[in-house]
Write a structure and sequence with these properties.
By secondary structure, the chain is mainly beta. It has five domains: 8-210, Immunoglobulin-like, CATH 2.60.40.10; 213-324, Immunoglobulin-like; 334-419, Immunoglobulin-like (Sandwich); 444-568, Zona pellucida, ZP-N domain (Immunoglobulin-like); 575-734, Jelly Rolls. The protein contains four helices and 55 strands. The strands form 15 sheets. A five-stranded antiparallel sheet has the order 9-8-7-12-13, with no helix packed on it. Strand 7 and strand 8 (134-142) form a beta hairpin. It is elongated, with a radius of gyration of 50 Å. The two termini are 93 Å apart.
Length: 743
C-alpha cells in the first residue's frame, strides 16, 4: 500500500443464512514501499467466505496489492495485525427491509481487547416517536455461556438472534424472517466488557422498511370520475384517483389515457393533474396520495380508457401498479344532416298537403319552414291547406341546432306545383247531330308566376319553372338564364331550374336600409349564339331579385321588377354628365353625397390630419381641401364610410376613365374600395389596403358601362387610430384610360 493517494484495504467474512458480512481487518493510508503481512484469526461455526476489498483513493497513486494469500486451520497464535484494540461496526443484509414475508438481518462486528471480559451485547431500538433507545434483545455472558433474552417478546416468533461468542472478536445481531411496519427504526448494538474497568462500545444503524407500490396500489387503489354517465362532447370530466404509492421513497401518481386497448401509444396526461401531499399510513407503512385529472372530452378521445398509475420504481404507463376505467363513450355533437324532400304536384281542392322534414343531429334540431310568400312555420311538418295555383313555389325546410357557441344550420327545398283542376269539356249540340263543338279554358302564364325567390341569412334559393317560361318563350334554354353579371348558373332538375348560391357570390350587392340588410341581384335571360356561346344574340328579360334580412334574423326573398331608389341611390334617378363627377373638394363635396346607411361620414379637411403619424400633411395640390376618414375614437375596426357619385349616363363608346389621388399613410391602415353600381349590381373595381406611405398616389380605373351607373368610394377603418384614408382631385372623363389600371 505505497502511494500518496492510498485509501483502504478491507477484509470481510460473510457467513450465515443471510450472508452477513463482518469486517475483521483493515488498513488505511500509505504503508510504505514494502510488503507487509496481515494475519487474522477467523472463528466460524457456519460456512463462510472471505472478501478482500480495495477502495481507490483520490488519485492515481493509490495502487493496493495483495499476494501469497493462505488459509490454515487453527488460530494464528499472534495478535491481529491492523485491527484496533477496540472496534465496532454495524452492517445490514440489504439497504432496505421489504415489507412482508421477506428476510432481513443486521449485525454488529466488534473487537475488544484480548484480555478483556465480555459481559453482554445489547440490541436496542428507537422508533420515530421514542425519545430513547429501548433494549429489545440481550446476549448475556454467563460463565462463558451466551444466553439470549428477548425484552421485546413480539420479536421471538419472527426473528432469530445472531449470538456472539465469548471471544474478543465476534458478531452479534438479529435476523428477521418477516418484516412489519414497526420494524422501521434506528437500531443500536452496545457491547459491555471489562479490561480492568467496566466500559462499553456501541454503534447504530437505521433500518428502512419499504412497502412496494406494485401490490398495494393495484389492490387498494381506486379511480372514479364525474360525470360518469351521458357524457357529451365538450364536457369536462373530473377523474379522481387515490391509493398507496409505497414508501422510502414514496412514489407519485401519474395519469395516462389510450384508445383501442393500445397502451403502447398511451398519452401522458400527468402535467394536467394535481396531487395531494403524501400521507403516511402506520398500518401499511406506505404513503397514500390523491390525484385529480380534468379532461375535456372531444371526438378525438371517444371511447377512451383512463389509467392511474403509482410511480415508485417503474416509470412507465404501467408503473408499479395501476387502476383504470372501462372505455368511456362520448356523445358526439354534430350538425344536422337533413333528408331530401321530393317535389310535389298538387291539384287545387285535393285537401291538406303535408310536407315532412327530418334531420339527424345532436343535439336534436329545431325546424323552420320558409314559404314562397316569405312567411315562416315552426316544426318539422308543414300542413298546407286551401292551396291554389298561387301557392306554387319553393318551400324550404331549415334544420338547426346549437353547440360550441354556434348555430349549425342546413336546409333542403322542395318545389310544390299546384295545378288547376281540369276544366270540364263543354259540348254544344246543334240541330245538326253530327256537329259537336268542343271548347276548353286556355292557361295564362306570366314571367312573374314562373320565378320563385326564397333566401336565408346566407343563401339564395331561386327556382325558375322552365315549362312556364317556354309558354312565353318557346325556344328558351336553361343554359341562357343566369344570376348576376358574372353569370352564375343554375342546376336543372326536370322542369325546374334551381339557383342555390351564397349571398356573397354572383356580384350580389349589399346595402343597409333602415336596419334591414338588403341583398340585390338580377336574374337574366340572354339568348346566346349556339356555336359561339360568348356572343349574346338578344337580351329577353331581366328580373330583379332581393333578399331582405331583418334584425331578428328572418330572411324574405322576393322579386323586384323595379329597384327601390332608397335602397340604392340618394340622388334620385336623374342622369348626370361626367363633368359633374369631377371634384377637388375645395368648394365642398360637389355632386357627391354621403351614404346614409354606412357607419360614419367622410370629412373635408385642409392642411394636415389631426392625428399624429397618419393622414396627409396637405391636399394633393398643396393648398386646398381633401376628404378623409378619421380613424380616431369613437371609430372601431370595420367601420365604413361611403361617398356616392351622381348617376352617370353611358356614352356612345361605353367607356369612361375614372382617376383620383389617395393617401393611405399610417401603421393601422384599413382599406379603400371603389365600386361601380349599375341597376341592382354592384362591382368592386379597385381596392388598396395597408400602409401606402406618406405621399399621394394616383388611382386610375377604366369603367365600361352600357347602362347608367354610380361610383362609390368606401373607406374602411383599420385596427387603430393611425388609419386615416384621404382622397382628392377626383375626375371622370369619357373614353378609355391611357394609363394602365393601378390597384
Amino acid at each position: 500500500m505505497y502511494g500518496q493517494n492510498i485509501d483502504r484495504l478491507n477484509v470481510y467474512v460473510q457467513s450465515g443464512p443471510s450472508l452477513l458480512t463482518s469486517l475483521i481487518w483493515y488498513k488505511q493510508g500509505n504503508q510504505g514501499n514494502q510488503w507487509m503481512e496481515g494475519n487474522i484469526t477467523i472463528k466460524a461455526a457456519k460456512p463462510f467466505m472471505i472478501i478482500l476489498e480495495g477502495i481507490r483513493g483520490y488519485g492515481y497513486r493509490g495502487d493496493i496489492a495483495v499476494d501469497d494469500v493462505e488459509l490454515t486451520e487453527g488460530s494464528c497464535g499472534s495478535q491481529l495485525t491492523g485491527v484496533p484494540t477496540t472496534f465496532i461496526s454495524v452492517s445490514k443484509s440489504a439497504d432496505k427491509a421489504i415489507l412482508g414475508n421477506n428476510t432481513f438481518a443486521f449485525s454488529c462486528d466488534y473487537i475488544i481487547p484480548l484480555q478483556a471480559h465480555l459481559f453482554a451485547v445489547e440490541l436496542q431500538r428507537r422508533r420515530k416517536d421514542d425519545s430513547n433507545f429501548i433494549t429489545i434483545v440481550t446476549f448475556q455472558n454467563q460463565s462463558n455461556q451466551i444466553n439470549v433474552t428477548y425484552q421485546d417478546t413480539s420479536l421471538e416468533s419472527r426473528t432469530e438472534g445472531i449470538q456472539p461468542t465469548t471471544e474478543n472478536n465476534s458478531t452479534a445481531g438479529l435476523e428477521f424472517r418477516n418484516i412489519e411496519c414497526s420494524d422501521k427504526a434506528e437500531y443500536k448494538c452496545k457491547v459491555y466488557y471489562s479490561d480492568g474497568t467496566n466500559t462499553s462500545i456501541e454503534n447504530t444503524t437505521e433500518v428502512v422498511v419499504q412497502a412496494s407500490a406494485q401490490t398495494m396500489f393495484s389492490q387498494k387503489g381506486r379511480i372514479t370520475y364525474f360525470p360518469n354517465t351521458n357524457i357529451t362532447e365538450g364536457d369536462e370530466v373530473v377523474f379522481t384517483c387515490e391509493g398507496d404509492v409505497g414508501s422510502e421513497p414514496e412514489g407519485h401518481i401519474a395519469w395516462f389515457y389510450y384508445l383501442d386497448n393500445d397502451t403502447t401509444n398511451a398519452v401522458d396526461a400527468t402535467s394536467n393533474a394535481s396531487s395531494t401531499a403524501p400521507v403516511y399510513q402506520e398500518n401499511t407503512c406506505t404513503y397514500t396520495r390523491t390525484s385529480m385529472l380534468r379532461l375535456n372530452m372531444t371526438e378525438d378521445i371517444n371511447n377512451v380508457t383512463v389509467r392511474c398509475t403509482a410511480q415508485q420504481n417503474v416509470l412507465n404507463q404501467s408503473g408499479d401498479g395501476y387502476v383504470q376505467t372501462n372505455k368511456i363513450p362520448v356523445q358526439l355533437l354534430y350538425s344536422p344532416k337533413i333528408d331530401l324532400i321530393a317535389n310535389e304536384t298538387y291539384t287545387e281542392g285535393q285537401g291538406t298537403l303535408t310536407l315532412r322534414c327530418t334531420a339527424d343531429s345532436y343535439p336534436a334540431p329545431d325546424y323552420v319552414w320558409l314559404l314562397p310568400d316569405g312567411s315562416e312555420s315552426l316544426g318539422s311538418n308543414l300542413e298546407l291547406t286551401n292551396l291554389t295555383v298561387g301557392s306554387s313555389g319553393l318551400y324550404m325546410c331549415i334544420a338547426h341546432n346549437f353547440f360550441k357557441g354556434e348555430n349549425h344550420t342546413t336546409n333542403t327545398t322542395t318545389y310544390v306545383r299546384v295545378e288547376k283542376a281540369p276544366t270540364p269539356i263543354t259540348e254544344v249540340i246543334t240541330t245538326t247531330p253530327s256537329l259537336i263543338q268542343t271548347t276548353s279554358a286556355k292557361a295564362y302564364y306570366t314571367l312573374k308566376g314562373a320565378i320563385h325567390v326564397v333566401c336565408t341569412n346566407y343563401h339564395w334559393y331561386i327556382t325558375v319553372e322552365m315549362d312556364k317560361i317556354r309558354h312565353i318563350y318557346p325556344t328558351a334554354r336553361a343554359s341562357d338564364i343566369y344570376l348576376g353579371e358574372n353569370k352564375c348558373k343554375g342546376v336543372q332538375n326536370g322542369d325546374l331550374l334551381i339557383f342555390q348560391h351564397d349571398l356573397s357570390e354572383c356580384l350580389t350587392s349589399e346595402l343597409l336600409v333602415n336596419g334591414i340588410e338588403v341583398y340585390n341581384n338580377e336574374l337574366i335571360y340572354a339568348e346566346h349564339d349556339p356555336v359561339y356561346l360568348f356572343i349574346v344574340l338578344h337580351y329577353n328579360w331581366t328580373v330583379g331579385v332581393e333578399c331582405d334580412i331583418r334584425q331578428n334574423g328572418t330572411a324574405i326573398g322576393r322579386k323586384t321588377m323595379s329597384l327601390s331608389t332608397a335602397a340604392h341611390s340618394k340622388t334620385g334617378t336623374s342622369e348626370s354628365s361626367v363633368s359633374q363627377v369631377s371634384c377637388s373638394f375645395d368648394s365642398g363635396l360637389c355632386n357627391w353625397t354621403q351614404d346614409q346607411t354606412d357607419t360614419f361620414d367622410w370629412t373635408r379637411q385642409k392642411g394636415s390630419a389631426p392625428s399624429a403619424y397618419t393622414g396627409p400633411v396637405g391636399d394633393h395640390s398643396g393648398a386646398g381641401y381633401y376628404v378623409y376618414i378619421e380613424a380616431s375614437y369613437p371609430r372601431v375596426a370595420g367601420n365604413k364610410a361611403r361617398l356616392i357619385s351622381p348617376e352617370i349616363s353611358p356614352n356612345q363608346q361605353g367607356q369612361n376613365c375614372f382617376t383620383f389621388w389617395y393617401n393611405m399613410y399610417g401603421s393601422n391602415m384599413g382599406r379603400l374600395n371603389v365600386y361601380v353600381q349599375s341597376g341592382p349590381s354592384t362591382s368592386l373595381l379597385w381596392h388598396k389596403k395597408g400602409n401606402q406611405g406618406i405621399l399621394w398616389k394616383e388611382g386610375i380605373i377604366s369603367i365600361e358601362a352600357a347602362k347608367p351607373f354610380m361610383i362609390i368610394l368606401e373607406g374602411i377603418r383599420g385596427n387603430g387610430y393611425a388609419g386615416d384614408i384621404a382622397v382628392d382631385d377626383i375626375k371622370l372623363t369619357e373614353g378609355s384610360c391611357e394609363k394602365q389600371i393601378i390597384g
